[in-house]
Amino acid sequence: MKHTPAPWITDTGTDGAVIYKLDEATIATVPMDLLCHEANARLIAAAPELLEALEHLVKITYDYGDTRDRNSPVHDALKQASDAITKATLSTVTN
Fold first, then answer.
1. Cα–Cα distance, 91 to 19 (Å, whole number)
2. Per-residue pLDDT, 68
3. What's the CA gap between 50 and 69, in Å, rounded?
4. I want to staple 41 with a disulfide (CB 3.0 to 4.6 A). Which of 10, 23, 59, 91 is the partner?
5. β-bridge mates for residue 43, sequence order
6. Cα–Cα distance between 65 and 57 in angstroms, integer?
7. What spatial distance separates the first Cα and last Cα of the chain, rounded to whole Å?
8. Half-sphere exposure of 14 (CA within 13 A, CB side)
9. Residue 30 CB neighbours (<10 A)
């Protein structure tokens, strides 16, 4: 794991929102001028738990589900989830 482990905490002030881990440095700041800065900060703070949950869900689905049918909506959802995990865990992300 290369990211700061959860839990991440948000704190909103007059300058914007700060995402941090207790007893560690600031992880990110979301300036006040960004629309919906509190919602962005909450999403950023939830990222480690979201990643962990998505990884667990994909693993369980592959372990216990039938993923052979490429026409299944489950197959499409697993592809989307796997792509998101890859994007979150690559050291260099390109769009």
1. 20
2. 74
3. 26
4. 10
5. none
6. 11
7. 22
8. 0
9. 22
Nearest CA-CA partner of 35 in 13, 17, 19, 20:
17
Interatomic CA distance for residues 83 and 77, integer angstroms = 10
How far is Cα 26 from Cα 19, in angstroms, rounded to an integer? 6
Q: What is the 3-state secondary structure of 14-74?
A: CCEEEEECCCCCEEEEEECCCCCHHHHHHHHHHHHHHHHHHHHHHHHHHHHCCCCCCCCHH
Distance (Å, whole) CA 8 – CA 59: 24
Q: Which residue has the tokens 């600031």?
A: 26
Q: Looking at this protein, which amino acid is placed at residue 53?
A: A
State phi, psi for 54 to the nearest 5 degrees: -65, -45
* CA neighbor of 44 nearest in space, from 81, 22, 19, 25: 19
For residues 56 and 19, give the distance between their C-alpha atoms in angstroms, rounded to a whole number: 24
